[in-house]
Amino acid sequence: MTTANERYLQVQHVNKVFTRDNVSNQVLADVNLTVKRGEYISIIGHSGCGKSTLLNIVAGLSTATDGYVILDGKEVNEPGPDRSLVFQNHSLLPWLTVYENVALAVNKVCKHKNKKERHEWILHNLNLVGMSHAIERRPGEISGGMKQRVGIARALAMEPKLLLLDEPFGALDALTRAHLQDEVMRIQAELNNTVLMITHDVDEAVLLSDKIVMMTNGPKATIGEILEIDLPRPRSRIELANDPQYNHYRGEVLRFLYEKQQKVKPIASVKTAESKAAVAAG
Ligand SMILES: Nc1ncnc2c1ncn2[C@@H]1O[C@H](COP(=O)(O)OP(=O)(O)OP(=O)(O)O)[C@@H](O)[C@H]1O
Predict the structure, then answer these.
(1) Which has more confidence, 67 or 159?
(2) What is the pLDDT of residue 89?
(3) What's the pTM?
(4) pLDDT at residue 280, as a whole number
């Protein structure tokens, strides 16, 4: 028997079919995943396979055609404050300051805290992501990396059961991305959040995760393999660069993506190749 913490998040037999103009497209087929409390899970797979569709179902923003999602014993049917989302493109309100953007979420969710406690909680979370020096600035006055930090502070301030990250570092330059990944690892060590993160970056997945969920190509995408990353924490990107185990994990993900799940050629180019062959054959 598994404990409630061992099956904190359960994705059970999830299918998703999109139908438009009487044409059905089955994006996900029988997706099953169990996540332990406090685990950091990355989802990786080729573009268009259905990663965001899966994350949206877990977030409650979209419903599964079949199957269900259970978080901490409760079925997920709609968005809720127990799941907070961070997208690639920060979603801060431009007319509010950094402080006010976080306050908006805190005032909505932390009704049990009084005014002073909320104020301290907002500052605490902005401090956690290194943004307490810019609380009066508006999103237009800070860099992309800083905006992403505020988005993370806002998500953390809601004390979600599950943190959902959809390519959170995707729009950042390499150095800012590395810096923010390190910050997220430090925060994760402190708070032990349960995290589901979509990424396209193999190194990011290996560095941050306890498990990497590798999805097959769509349509009818499902989980192909799950790789456990058994590297001690805290993890240092510099030390791991020459670590044989790290490179083994990296190789496993690359093999899955580029050998086992090679992206199929677009139909147009296949047709062109076929026509060329037909012409060559006379
Ligand atoms: N609302 C929708 N209506 C119809 N089809 C959709 C909808 N949302 C997604 N799809 C389709 O589902 C498939 C998977 O899309 P999804 O965005 O989940 O993939 P992804 O793996 O997250 O892609 P990427 O890595 O490029 O962000 C695509 O074929 C997409 O066109």
Answers:
(1) 67
(2) 76
(3) 0.90
(4) 46
Distance of CA 19 to the CA centre of its chain: 25
- Decide if 45 contacts 263 (C-beta within 8 A): no
pLDDT digits (tens, 9 = 90+) for 94-130: 999 999 999 999 999 888 889 999 999 999 999 988 9
User: In angstroms, what is the span from residue 258 Cα to ligand 1's centroid?
Assistant: 20
The domain in which residue 66 lies consists of 1-75+201-282
Q: Measured between alpha carbons, how far is 177 from 173 in angstroms, rounded to an integer?
A: 6
The answer to whether residue 6 is domain-embedded is: yes
Contact 197, 35 (CB under 8 A): no
Q: Is ligand 1 within 6 A of the CB of residue 131? A: no
Nearest-CA neighbor of 208 among 244, 250, 248, 172? 250
Helix-strand-coil split of the chain, %, nearest 5: 40, 25, 35
> How many domains does the chain divide into?
1
Pocket test for ligand 1, best of 14, 23, 47, 49 (most atoms within 8 A of CB): 49
Return phi, psi of residue 67, to 5°.
Answer: 90, 180
Q: pLDDT averaged over the chain?
A: 91
